[in-house]
């Protein structure tokens, strides 16, 4: 495993660039599960000269679902603001691969967030029980932080 992380923002820009084929974007939007991404030429266009593993599949699977915004709030905070039910957040966190990514993609499709791909990409790249916990914590911290002026 390489210690160096990919440039997730550059990856998102490559995907959004006009030179990336629209058919390839459509392939990634249509796949049903993360493992199906491996059977699309779009994956190999996104990661030229690389032998993709599960981390690459997760990134490519979620790439069509989120825009990039450098100053975006965490995904958990955006889902809390969108009034997503706690059960849906916990469903993502408790699910095992590939169902966790399928459930997360459904949430992203519903909310259509703009995320900071540097942070979001790293979370998806490292996706494990600690990243899931961080995701849940971000949600609950945002959900239960009192607004300014409210009494604690």
Question: Topology of this structure?
Answer:
Blueprint: H1 8-16, H2 22-30, H3 41-46, H4 54-62, E1 67-68, H5 75-81, H6 86-94, H7 99-111, E2 114-115, H8 117-125, H9 129-144
Parallel strand pairs: 1-2
Helix pairs in contact: 5-9, 6-7, 6-9
How would you describe what is shown here?
- Helix 6 packs antiparallel against helix 7 and helix 6 (86-94) runs antiparallel to helix 9.
- With 152 residues, the chain is an all-alpha fold.
- It is globular and about 50 Å long.
- Strands 1-2 form a two-stranded parallel sheet.
- It contains 9 helices and 2 strands; from the N terminus they run H-H-H-H-E-H-H-H-E-H-H.
Structural features:
single chain, 152 residues, two-stranded parallel ribbon, 57% helix, mainly alpha
Helix count equals 9
The assigned structural class equals mainly alpha
- Tell me the series of helices and strands, N- to C-terminal: HHHHEHHHEHH
Oligomer: single chain
Gist of the model:
The chain is mainly alpha-helical. It contains nine helices and two strands.
């Amino acid at each position: 495993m390489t210690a160096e992380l990919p440039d997730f923002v550059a990856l998102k820009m490559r995907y959004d660039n006009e030179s990336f084929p629209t058919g390839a974007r459509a392939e990634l939007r249509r796949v049903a599960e993360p493992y199906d991404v491996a059977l699309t030429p779009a994956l190999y266009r996104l990661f030229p000269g690389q032998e993709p593993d599960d981390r690459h599949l997760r990134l490519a699977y979620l790439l069509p679902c989120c825009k990039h915004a450098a100053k975006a709030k965490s995904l958990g905070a955006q889902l809390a603001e969108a009034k997503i039910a706690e059960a849906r957040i916990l469903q993502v966190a408790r699910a095992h691969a590939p169902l966790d990514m399928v459930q997360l993609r459904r949430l992203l499709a519903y909310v259509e967030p703009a995320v900071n791909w540097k942070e979001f990409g790293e979370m998806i790249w490292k996706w494990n029980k600690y990243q899931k916990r961080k995701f849940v914590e971000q949600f609950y911290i945002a959900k239960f932080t009192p607004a300014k002026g409210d009494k604690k």
